[in-house]
Amino acid sequence: MIQWDEGGQIHSAKWHSENGIAPHQKIQVADDTLTADIAYRLACEGTAMLYKGDFQNARQLLQALVRRVDKPSKKSTRSDRVAKEKTKTPLDAFNLHRLAQSQRARILGMVLIPINADHSISLRRAPDVARACLEVYGEKAEPYVISLRELLGVISAHEWRKKGVPVLARDDEEIRIHPHYGVFSPIRGEYIELVLKAPLPIALKQNSIAFDVGVGTGVLSVVLAIREIKKIIATDQDDRAIACAQDNIDRLRLNEQIEIQKTNLFPTAKAALIVCNPPWLPARPSSSLEHAVYDLDSQMLRGFLSKLKDHLLPGGEGWLILSDLAEHLGLRSRGELLSWFDAAGLKVIARLDTKPQHQKVFDKTDALHAARSKEVTSLWRLVTK
């Protein structure tokens, strides 16, 4: 619960944060008279602002905070230059970048919006967000408060869920994958192309069964089905990922080929092909969506490799899809990865590489540009020794 003073009376409401942010202790009511400079000062001091004015003005206020956060003062700029001079390694740059992102998220999360129990918003010029909020939060029995930044993310996710993401599936044929909130969207298509191009194991001719470990949106399971593998068992532990994948499988009418199981990594059976696209960076995730990118101590990657041998049919292959960005950031070495292959009783029979083409690769102002510009995404074809 959160509490605030309004007109000399103490009010309270249920607090909700998908990222697990603790309820704010200092809250003041804000309206259209609040200036961006004062709002920025309050946010930096740790005071959250419960907005009771015009909704569109609240959005403009948040945009003004974004400009102030992303354009530091001259004093901050000098400090940044000094810090940059002291930054001697890519790992230092990565840690500073994550710290800056955390501070940015904290400040931008200080504008709060009250939501009614039916997911409606009583503010002037507020959009209809009931369907979007219902998809993420489910039924609510009482009013609640969330950050405006989170709400905008919920609205954006709802739009992506409606229209879907175009994915090249076969011979210039596009399908649409519909990501749900909190499930990583397949907007980076290069890894999908690798799965389309890699030669299928001969073992599939005798046993046409594959596993998709960590199903996410279900995009790789769909690609395997399009490649005419008769049975795909997809696994995940996240309820949102499972619901999202099932939605996409239903839309594409692939239920007879693809089965989803809620389990950690592998089903109990064995397969001729096992595909895994684990989180690429060994660091602690700070939000639900970041679990698709960050994996503390490479737990999923190491777990997949250590048990892969036990789940492969004779002549079967494991396809590990992995970016080498972690290597360029100093988070993991190539030698370390190869040693994990060896310790798991695996050997590499081939590797397919591709260069990412997303916007950050070419953005020289990005804090991690030096590492991103060298990034290569690979599909490692692994077999038992």
TrEMBL record:
Molecular function, one GO term: protein-glutamine N-methyltransferase activity
Keywords associated with the record: Methyltransferase, S-adenosyl-L-methionine, Transferase
One Pfam assignment: MTS
InterPro entries xref list: DNA_methylase_N6_adenine_CS, N5-glutamine_MTase, SAM-dependent_MTases_sf, Small_mtfrase_dom
Protein name (record): Methylase
Organism of this sequence: Polynucleobacter hirudinilacicola
Any Gene Ontology biological process: methylation
Methyltransferase small domain boundaries: 175-322
